[in-house]
Write a structure and sequence with these properties.
Its EC number is 2.7.11.1. The protein has 16 helices and 35 strands. It is of the alpha+beta class and 715 residues long. The longest helix has 26 residues.
């Protein structure tokens, strides 16, 4: 893509980011002469109508927002100049870094700093919510921070998952695929795929937790485990990791990340109001504000005690965890996802650390968290009619036995005839007993007796685990190995069925062996282009950091000189690798040394890596000996190893003065002028007037520059 001109307007430059659906390039709008960011869908995806429509939807959604903390969208297009559809967005270019870089360098950070970074983000989300949009992918990577030269403004980017809020468009799961970033997904998105403004509020609360602690609230070995914790575990209090955090900051995190979305702020505008209240308390230097904390903390939902009122067979199963949708996203079989409660106690919740006063129906204050039991009237029913008469509690004001409280009248006795006992009853009872016994025996056999309990072989090597299984009458089968940070390579980290599970006698147990900690070597990227190097890093589960330009005499411009860390270094997945890119050969500016000392010029040029050559040495009446008469080139740009040629002066040409003593003046003058001298005559001390030369100055045999003046003394 680099160098292409999209729609005869946008000149594509270096790639600055790469995502799963598109790449972002720095580009120049040649029509308006400004730098922009162009987001280009990956080749081939433009042919997918669904992806193309999502791209167009992003442009329209973001274009509706005019806010100083939202990355603006300028244009959207589809270029077909190369024979294939290139779908792209043109956005505001924000030179700088992301909030993720700030988290890496500064977190954990003081609450005031964290709230100062989060406030523009919440403000931007508030504008989106007021416009009927939800972002649905709030995370530090989507928060851009301009460098100081461009004002340091914070902007929210990538409304690629944004969608107008309506009754028909509140699902983020399409065809079973969950859309979003798992570390910031609200619980309701995992359970039923429904998203509204409160899902953005939850993600903003998770970002605040990460800024305060430097860690994500829920972590796991797989995305599914992280999502499971979002559904079943509260976000812990930041003060558990950073004890100096005030209670009202804890309360703000708890309120925004409540698993019950009804307990969260209704949208980002309401969250911004709460955030300003907390900022004010921080400015006042309050270490604690119980009243503000109690007001912010989510209220514990009333619990209805229905143990005596539930109808038989009533389904009280909680809403299911949608593991299937998330498994499709992460390409993990839900059966292998480990989505079972590990039995570990939940983390400390907000209400456990900061109990919230609740009100009784009479508004009497209660200082401890309480469980409200709602009384329910239950009609009394008789399980067995033991007698022919029953005592019934009379209604107030009425006389027992009468509908209206009147005195009872006499009742005539009723004659009854004894019924003959049927023989069918015992026979039916016997058949029922036999049937139940048969069913029980079958259930015992099919549900229990023919199964064996899977022995615990975790931590054993494959041979020992196989032997243990064989001793239990089971067969071992190697499964797909997996990485583990805690179990050495070659040892069993999981079995299917799991230890204690049931397996048919003689059945097979699949062993999952550890590959050891997941590590990746930095690939050899020297000589590759920046795009090729970024693709290679993505293929090895390493993260591209930044590119730094360096001059290189051997590596062509735009290719990788080296990596930092260097190639072959072993790193954890997701570790950052920076690229050192060649800027090409370093240019060397050449100055004009004409008239200057050749020795000085030669030393200066050779020190800068240039070669020096003397192509000519000649006499010069105007340039001193050893100085430069001329050079080639006289100016411009050269590169290391290039040659600068010089013509060096030998100084003026010297000519020996001939013997002219006793010669006639005219003959002597003709001889000297023929050698290039100028001639002057003077009378000798003894002048006789005979016209002969008695001596000269300079004298005979002296070497003087050509063109010098020779004085003849005449007698």
């Amino acid at each position: 893509m680099v160098g292409r001109l999209l729609e005869r307007r946008y000149r594509i430059g270096a790639r600055v980011a790469r995502g799963g659906m598109a790449s972002v390039y720095e580009a120049t709008d040649i029509r308006l002469d400004r730098t922009v960011a162009v987001k280009i869908m990956h080749p081939g995806l433009g042919d997918d109508q669904e992806f193309a429509e999502r791209f167009v939807r992003e442009a329209r959604a973001a274009a509706r927002l005019n806010h100083p903390h939202v990355v603006g969208v300028y244009d959207q297009g589809d270029d077909t100049s190369d024979g294939q559809d290139t779908v792209f967005l043109v956005m505001e270019y924000v030179p700088g870094h992301t909030l993720r870089d700030v988290v890496r360098k500064e977190a954990p950070m003081p609450p005031r700093r964290a709230l100062a970074l989060l406030e523009p983000v919440v403000s931007a989300l508030g504008a989106a919510h007021r416009a009927g949009l939800i972002h649905r992918d709030v995370k530090p990577e989507n928060v851009l921070i301009a460098d100081e030269a461009h004002g340091g403004r914070i902007k929210v980017a990538d409304f690629g998952l944004a969608k107008a809020v309506s009754a028909d468009t509140q699902h983020t799961a399409t065809g079973g695929v969950l859309i979003g970033t798992v570390s910031y997904l609200a619980p309701e998105l995992v359970v039923d795929g429904r998203a509204d403004a409160r899902a953005d509020v939850y993600a903003a609360g998770v970002v605040l937790y990460e800024l305060l602690t430097g860690r994500k609230p829920h972590e796991g070995e797989s995305p599914i485990q992280v999502a499971y914790r979002h559904v079943h575990h509260d976000v812990p209090m930041p003060s558990l990791l950073q004890p100096g955090i005030p209670d009202y900051v804890d309360a703000l995190v708890a309120r925004s990340t409540s698993r019950d979305r009804d307990q969260r702020p209704a949208d980002a505008t309401v969250l911004l109001h709460h955030l300003h209240r907390v900022e004010q308390a921080l400015r006042e230097g309050l270490d604690s504000d119980p009243e503000l904390a109690a007001d912010l903390l989510p209220r514990r939902a009333l619990t209805v005690d229905t143990s005596d009122t539930e109808e038989p067979g009533e389904d009280t199963t909680p809403e299911p965890f949608d593991a299937g949708a998330l498994a499709l996203l992460t390409e993990v079989d839900p059966r292998d996802s480990g989505l079972v409660d590990d039995g570990s106690p939940d983390r400390t919740t907000a209400l456990e650390r900061h109990p919230v006063p609740m009100r009784t129906p009479s508004e009497a204050p209660v200082t401890e968290p309480m469980k409200a039991v709602v009384p329910v009237a239950v009609a009394a029913t008789a399980s067995h009619p033991a007698t022919t008469t029953q005592a019934v509690r009379p209604a107030p004001g009425r006389t027992p036995g009468t509908p209206s409280g009147k005195a009872p009248s006499k009742v005539a006795p009723v004659a009854t005839t004894a019924r003959r006992r049927s023989r069918k009853g015992p026979l039916a009872l016997l058949l029922a007993i036999v049937l139940v016994a048969g069913i029980g025996a079958g259930a015992w056999w099919f549900g229990w007796e023919r199964y064996t309990t899977t022995p615990a072989v975790l931590g054993l090597d494959e041979a020992a685990a196989s032997a243990e299984l064989e001793s239990s009458g089971l067969e071992a089968e190697p499964g797909e190995p997996a990485y583990s940070e805690n179990v050495e390579a070659g040892l069993v980290i999981a079995t299917d069925p799991e230890p204690g599970g049931k397996v048919l006698d003689g059945g097979t147990v699949t062993l999952v062996l550890s590959l050891g900690p997941e590590r990746y070597d930095v690939p050899q990227l020297a000589g590759q282009t920046e795009d090729q190097a970024q693709d290679a890093l993505a293929a090895t589960n390493l993260t591209f950091g930044e590119s730094v330009g360096r001059w290189s005499e051997t590596v062509p411009e735009g290719q990788v000189v080296r990596t930092s860390p260097k190639a072959g270094t072993t790193l954890k997945p997701g570790a950052t690798v920076d690229l050192v890119l060649s800027r090409g050969r370093k240019p060397i500016e050449v100055r004009d040394w004409t008239g200057k000392s050749f020795d000085t010029a030669s030393q200066a040029l050779e020190k800068r890596g240039l070669a020096v050559a003397v192509t000519d040495e000649s006499y010069s009446d105007t340039v001193p000996e050893g100085a430069v008469i001329s050079q080639d080139p006289t100016s411009g740009t050269l590169f290391r190893g290039d040659t600068v040629s010089f013509s060096v002066s030998l100084g003026p040409e010297l000519v020996e003065v001939p013997q002219v003593k006793a010669m006639g003046v005219e003959a002597a003058t003709e001889l000297l002028e023929g050698l290039g001298f100028r001639v002057e005559t003077e009378q000798a001390d003894i002048y006789l007037g005979i016209g002969y030369v008695s001596s000269s100055d300079p004298g005979a045999g002296d070497e003087v520059p050509k063109g010098s003046t020779i004085t003849l003394f005449v007698v």
